[in-house]
Design goal:
Mean pLDDT is 77; it is low at 1-20 and 212-216. The protein is elongated. 71% of the residues lie in helices and 0% in strands. The protein is built from seven helices and no strands. By secondary structure, it is mostly helical.
């Protein structure tokens, strides 16, 4: 006997739906409330710690006290006006799915960073190695003039302004970046050929010069 359509098990419904890229929405100001909240929080934190001299523990303590006082006042006002039920704070909770996705993303980024560092250290690419060392040296110079909090604050401001500027002027920026890429590739191969000639002179080897790749 064939099972009736009612008795057949229903196909499993996938409850997991692809979440929107909330980071992209924030930096492109598609979620204006979240973008404004992030900007205000970063500005208040920087002003409180850099100008008024609050330490991180002091600032977190005052923030926690403010949240507790607001929740206490909210609960008492609800009871005062005879409102039944407790306030719904489920939206403030972090779901298990969000935690797993965040941990997975951090795991992937850390592995990619480790592989990149190992590749730059092990690969025989002189200019890549020199560029990485120069970048870290420039970062150390910036760190000698700015503290970590200021660098993070500048990074947040840049993250909330540069992507939006790029989206609005994408064609012009891409055109300029393509011209800059062609010039940098020409300079790269020219310097690489000169460096190869110097290495050949020092080692006594004769190798064919590196030909410049054709750029479209």
């Amino acid at each position: 006997m064939s099972a009736s359509p009612e008795s057949q098990p229903a196909p499993p419904t996938t409850q997991h739906q692809e979440n929107p890229d909330w980071v992209r929405d924030i930096v492109l100001w598609r979620r204006k409330d979240a973008g404004i909240l992030l900007l205000v929080a970063a500005t208040v934190t920087w002003v409180a710690m850099e100008i008024y001299g609050f330490t991180f523990i002091t600032l977190v303590s005052w923030l926690a006290m403010t949240i507790v006082v607001c929740l206490f006042a909210w609960g008492n006002l609800n009871r005062l006006f005879n409102r039944e039920g407790t306030p719904d704070l489920s939206r403030l909770e972090i779901s298990e799915q969000t935690t797993v996705e965040t941990a997975t993303l951090c795991h992937q980024r850390i592995n990619e960073a480790i592989r990149t560092v190992l590749h730059m250290g092990a690969a025989n690419e002189w200019f890549v190695f020199a560029g990485v060392v120069a970048s870290f040296y420039a970062l150390s110079l910036v760190g000698s003039y700015l503290d970590l909090l200021t660098i993070c604050y500048i990074g947040i401001l840049g993250g909330l302004t540069l992507p939006l500027t790029y989206v609005k002027n994408e064609e012009k920026i891409n055109e300029y970046a393509e011209k800059l890429r062609i010039k940098s590739e020409r300079l790269y191969f020219m310097l690489r050929e000169k460096l190869q000639k110097m290495i050949n002179k020092l080692t006594g080897k004769q190798k064919e010069p590196i030909k410049e790749q054709k750029t479209e």
